[in-house]
């Protein structure tokens, strides 16, 4: 297998206007345990279109991310990323308002293998692995927004 796509829809206990700013490489440190991001380029210092940042991947090498769309009004943010000698990926996030000041937040990851190591990564990115990862993210974000 050389590519995989999975989507997970979160139920977040806050309106989109409160959720969207949290979808930022800097702000994620507030609620994702172990998350670190090094901003390479950002005019504002936080998430915006054209922001470039790096995070360590599974083996500690840097994964480089670029925010390719950042539209708070539409509730959409998209990322492209490359993990050297492994895989290239996209992440599309969209927010929708729901009843009682809640939101649904849809995360769609697509990973494309670039190398043998990337094929191993793609094969390990199962629906169950993704569900577990996203469930933890959903819980952490809800906890932070209730604080």
Detailed description of the structure:
The protein is an alpha+beta fold and 147 residues long. It has a single domain (3-146), classed as START domain (Alpha-D-Glucose-1,6-Bisphosphate, Chain A, domain 4, 2-Layer Sandwich). It has 3 helices and 7 strands, in the order βαββββββαα. The protein has a 7-stranded antiparallel β-sheet. The longest helix has 20 residues, at 127-146. The radius of gyration is 15 Å and the shape is globular.
Layout of strands and helices, then pairs:
Blueprint: E1 3-12, H1 16-19, E2 38-41, E3 52-56, E4 62-71, E5 76-83, E6 87-98, E7 102-113, H2 116-124, H3 127-146
Antiparallel strand pairs: 1-7, 2-3, 3-4, 4-5, 5-6, 6-7
In short:
With 147 residues, this protein is of the alpha+beta class.
Radius of gyration: 15 Å
Q: Give the strand order of the largest sheet, numbering strands 1, 2, ... along the chain.
A: 1-7-6-5-4-3-2
Reported for the largest beta sheet, the result is: 7 strands, antiparallel
* Percent range for β-strand residues: 35-45%
CATH topology: Alpha-D-Glucose-1,6-Bisphosphate, Chain A, domain 4
Which key terms come to mind for this protein?
147 residues, 22% helix, Alpha-D-Glucose-1,6-Bisphosphate, Chain A, domain 4
């Amino acid at each position: 297998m050389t590519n995989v796509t999975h989507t997970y829809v979160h139920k977040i206990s806050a309106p989109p206007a409160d959720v969207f700013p949290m979808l930022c490489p800097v702000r994620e440190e507030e609620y994702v345990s172990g998350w670190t991001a090094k901003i390479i380029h950002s005019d504002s210092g936080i998430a915006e279109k054209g922001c470039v940042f790096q995070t360590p991947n599974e083996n500690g090498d840097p994964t480089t991310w670029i925010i390719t769309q950042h539209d708070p009004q539409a509730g959409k943010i998209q990322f492209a990323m490359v993990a050297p000698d492994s895989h290239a990926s996209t992440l599309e996030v969209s927010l929708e308002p729901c009843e009682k000041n809640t939101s649904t937040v849809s995360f769609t990851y697509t990973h494309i293998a670039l190398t043998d190591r990337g094929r191993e990564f793609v094969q390990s990115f199962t629906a169950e692995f993704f569900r577990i990862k996203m469930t933890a993210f959903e819980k952490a974000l809800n906890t932070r927004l209730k604080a």
